[in-house]
Amino acid sequence: METESNFIYEKIASQIEVVIDKLSRQNAKDKIDQDISFAIDNLYKLNGIIQKELNELKKISEWKKFTIAFYGETNAGKSTLIEALRIFLKEKSKVESQKKFKELSEKSGLTEEAFCKVRQIIMSKEKAIEEVQEILNKLDQKYAESIMRAEVEVRHLSELLEKIRKNQKWWQRFISLFIPIKEKEELVTARQLLSEIKAEKQKESEDFKSRLKTLLQEKKDAEAENTRLIKETESLKEFADGQIIGDGRSDFTRDNTSFDFNYNNHEFALIDVPGIEGDESVVRTAIEEAVKKAHAIFYVTRTARPPQTHEGEKGDKKGTLEKMKEHLGAQTEVWTIYNHAVNNPRSLKQPLIGQGEKDGLRALDEKLKQELVEKYCQSLIVSARPAYLGLTECVIPGSKEANEQRKFLERFGTRDKILELSGLPNFVEKLSSEIIVDYRNKIKRSNLNKACQTLDSSICDLKALSQKFKEDRKKVRDEVLNSQTRIMVLMEQFTGILDSLRGKILQAFQNEIRASLYNEIDKDISNDAFKRNLKNEMELQAQKLENKLRNSIESEANKFGEELLNIVKRTSLHLNNIVNERSNSFSIKNFNLDIKIDNGLNLIGLVSSGVAIVISIVSLASNPVGWTFAFVGGVLAAVGALIGVTKSVIGFFSSDYKKSQQRKETDNAIRKAANQIGNEMEKILNDIKNAMNEEVEKVSMELQAPLKQYKSVIEVLEKAETELEAIFQTI
After folding, report:
1. Whether residues 564 and 668 fall in one domain
2. 555 within a domain of the structure (yes/no)
3. Band of the pLDDT at 63, cuts 50, 70, 90?
């Protein structure tokens, strides 16, 4: 069976390689886009992840023994239940450790009877000490009043005698040496009485004080013996029951421990898994390995309600339910074991749980059935602690467990009664008759499920990534269209500015020549002077026009370039944000799928090049063979004609007439020159517009590049999805 199932893993792996090979060859053939190669590279990486997962499954998967993982919250009682099952089902290593425990216990005399004997001695001595102490206290009370009265009398007579002595004359003191005064004799009598009372009390209490001393020593000896026994029990701990049971500390169980069983000719194994609520950095790997190896899961809980979802103050931590969905996707079967907490013998009764807990378990079953679908079976009920206490025969004498067991036995009389009430026999019957039967098919189905889950997870990852790229492509398309619209508006504005410049500069040209020549004409200059002035002014203003036009076009072209660059930079920034958002928010397992998108856009060079071309057109047009030479020549020809006409009529008309003729011919010359210059300017500006349109078109086309890249990447991902889904369907 193992060979057959491993062949399935190998088949999956080989077919995945075929997918990648097909896509690679298609890329080489079609030469779609460079970014397809990036996608292919990353699919190779994804393939590596899939292959690694499959290899781990081959390595970890159990093919001979049906394996059940005890999975659940920290301190849910997983280890306690497993320990009870080890004893009940006579697990091999448990039988061996119990045998060593009993041998060592008998050899060393470390029995519960020995501890009980010592404890009884200590208790009996403590009781006797209390009794003797009570007698001594009563003796104290018996003589207390007599002693107090005698002491008061002695004190009174002593004070009286002292007062008499202080008041005696010298001769009275002399006489008292031979004849004692009455008070002195009374004091002697009082002191004698006090001494007699104390002696009587002492005589009566001496026996009891001796008895008390003996009892205290006997108690001390018994306590020393108890301490010795406790110290010697250290040798038993290694073989005692319950070593795998936690002591209440978080993460007591940190590693997976597997126990093998053979029950009714069915081989199976139970894995004690660390609690899922523990330190994730410590236990995560162990949990993942256990569930990958297991064919069925026992979800052990102390709570008769559905597992909780997101936890933490902000709900930002995975709850039990999220962890279960993440961990338990591939197993054939998932069962809930409700470990009914019983720590007091009075709480152990039949039925084991009440109606409220039954309703809670019904809701739990419904919720897990909804989340795990056909993999979820049902909930089972057991009380692990009483079951363990009813079964164990190898607990440390005098320990907390021994005392706890004694309380249960005192209430229920027999171990069998405790075991029956715990529900463990019914649980074992369910395990034997339903859960571990047909285990060979369950093993095969479970291991195949795990392989399919790995493949399905990869398909889901690809779909999610493809969807993310589609969403990003829409964002990119919107951004590109927006940028292209803004560029069109900018180009229209630039064209309008060029047209406006032509009119403004021509008008200024005409106005300045006219004003200058009219001023000279008003001086009544000769025709020769007029000719010279006209020629000079035309040349001067033509040069000014040339400079003004060139500078204006250069200025506007640079402004246009700056605005275009700003649009491009903003577009590039937005595209960067889109790509970064995708790369930062999406990962496949431990592998970041970094499909490269050229979001930087190589547009700055294009924009700068376009501005340079505009300026070069202006420069080219302003050289000696350009439009300045042409219209200056035309202007000079107009001046020659004007002079000829003026000379023929000069003798017949007045000075005013001459001036009017000069003005008229000036206007004609300016108009002709302006028309000629305007035509040349229009040609130049059209050249500039055409050149700039070409460059803007290049920019617009460049903006389409990311869209093409996204399209090609999406095509590759979708093809990979299709091929992997085909593999999944064949399995």
Report:
1. yes
2. yes
3. low
